[in-house]
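Input chain follows. Return structure tokens only.
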Amino acid sequence: MNIVEQNINEDDIGIPNQENEILIEVKDLTTYFYTEFGIVRAVDGVSFHIKKGEFFGLVGESGCGKTVTALSCINLVRFPGIIEGGQVLYKGKNILELKDKDIRKIRGAEISMIFQDPLSSLNPVFTVGEQIAEVIRLHEGVKKDEAIERAIKLMKSVGIPLARERVNDYPHQFSGGMRQRVMISRALSCNPSLLIADEPTTALDVTIQAQILEIIRTLQTDYGMSVLLITHNLGIIAENCQRVGVMYGGHIVETASVKIIFKDPRHPYTQALMAAIPRLDESIEKLQTLPGSVPDLIDPPTGCRFHPRCQYAKQTCSELVPVLEKWTKEHMVACHFHKEFNK
């Protein structure tokens, strides 16, 4: 058993209720960036879904397309990025086909996002209270005094001490962990159905990371919302998520419940990630490393983008792009030969 597997609570994190209604479904999402160096195929045919009340994780190395996927889901990709194709069905409506005014009604109200760096996401010239209240006033049309009172309550709910006094402070007067709490307050100000948390614990120490994630878990339960958690940390996935999608080179290569992913990873990339996790019953010298480097998305490998680093690769892997197919009812794998090898 490795250290991450220890953190999986099988009573709380398993296969979600199959009767749960799908809240958002991403189908063949494709987003490219047109740069002077070439076309960056950041997201290239990504598909997954998130059910109502579900905690879904998206994991992969830096540069694999996780953040661009999240931004594409709320149609927030900016030049030189272009969403080339696919669908993002939120409550049955394709977000990518909505007019700007209709998308703005959804962003911040029904779908909210917490970004990696709260300092760059908060306006330095406005107080944190004003920035939380602004979202409430924009989407719910309440008066300023009422919006500020609600901002104070939200700040208290995420553990910001002396919230009534601190509501008039500016972002630079808060620590990194407290700024992230402010961001969570703002994201939850209109009781969203879906919270997208993009690396919410980046640059925070381990203790503060745990506190931030505990806040998100608690509020997810209290509000009954869905969460899309983006991270490169398998430990965070194990502790928080019900299902997970593994990304590599702009593609989803495997999806399953967290419990299944850790017990029976079928894609060679997922297996490599697992093999790099320290085990309690083995010495650190036995940790495996993954040869090679992440693919250049301007000139990605043909066929399976993982094949240059894969120990199981065959001729077919360099010629044909594998598609996600069922291994079991809730377990999808994009690998030509996933049925032929053991983990």
